[in-house]
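Input chain follows. Return structure tokens only.
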Amino acid sequence: MSTLDRRTFARLFALGGSAALLGHPAVAEAAPGSLRLSLPGSGTADWASIRAQFLMPPDVAVLNAANLCPAPRAVLDEVSRFTERLDTEPFPGFRSELLSFKERTRDALAAHLRVTPEEILITRNTSEANNWVSNGLELGPGDEVLIFSDNHPSNNQAWKAKGERFGYSVREVAQVNPHPGHEYYLEAFRRAITPNTRVLAFMQHTNTVGDVFPARELCALAREHGIVSLIDGAQSFGLMDVDLSDWQPDFFSGSAHKWPCGPKETGVLFVNRRIHDRFWPSMYSAYPGGRGLSRTHEGMGQRDTPAVRAFGSQIEFLSAIGQAEIEARSRELTTMLFEELSAIEGVHLWTSPHAERRGAVVTFRPGELDTRRVLAALEEDGVVAASRGGEDRPGIRFSPHFYNTEADVERGVEAIGRYMRSGL
């Protein structure tokens, strides 16, 4: 039986990262069902082989990455295997071993986001991470927080509720549809900044219609005015090739259960070292992390340690495929989806027609059809999507990812075309 000691593990990771690790026989033995990657010399991943690592049957098209992504079999197996061991071997030694894997996950996250492990906190999801930020900064009367109106509630309503409690004000930069361009929003944020602005918080890729924001430039704008920046990365982490060493935000949040295709109730909060001494913990309890800010901010009591371990493994899998490859693939499928939906008479697209202004979300109104009935019909046809009700850009949302195929896109488009021609 092959073995992989710590020295060999460190050497392989240093030489080739997760790609080298995945190729080692001991790793393959230790993780039955692990993701098998096919990376031809061209650098293009074998997407059909990667799709085969997921459990969705061929006749189900999961076009809902902006809400909840399926995890590959390897992640499910790892969570199951270590949960079973935790229940059959509840000894302090094994529990300590599982806790130590949190630091391996921290290393994987830091490498993936191009920052240091000392700046990484492992949270439960983006909502928790965003609320740690709004809880952990000292703000009061006379201070202002500047947000984007299309933020997720955890980066919108949370600021407003806490502003009422602590006496600071919240101002919004309004969303414009269709996306008017990066320069428009840069200028809108610049005009909205006042001498009292303390925080600038925005989604880098919106969950509503997939608008993409110039993260690097907005963070530079914040630094120029001495303002703290928070990027809600729920819709970009695991989809886009995020380089925080270049963007230089003060905070960046993300979830594993969306685009990273990881285990549920695991997430990340990056805290730039320049702001560590201004950021208070939101919780005080047992089992903190072992390095940097995690020693004071990550005491959350008992965690799902098998899931935290599998989170790190999944990040290594994404890195082995190549995050830039994943982003290009997802955007390619999105463009295909956008163009084919555009050709259906009566469909109104809320998502920008400009590829550089959108990510991997396409939201549209299917004529006068009832979106609830459309969503139910899609489910009957084996298409997983989401719906938007109300007056604000109502309709259906498709969000493809790298595990999807062209056939998945065709299935979704064909269904919408049929509903538009024949009704429901």
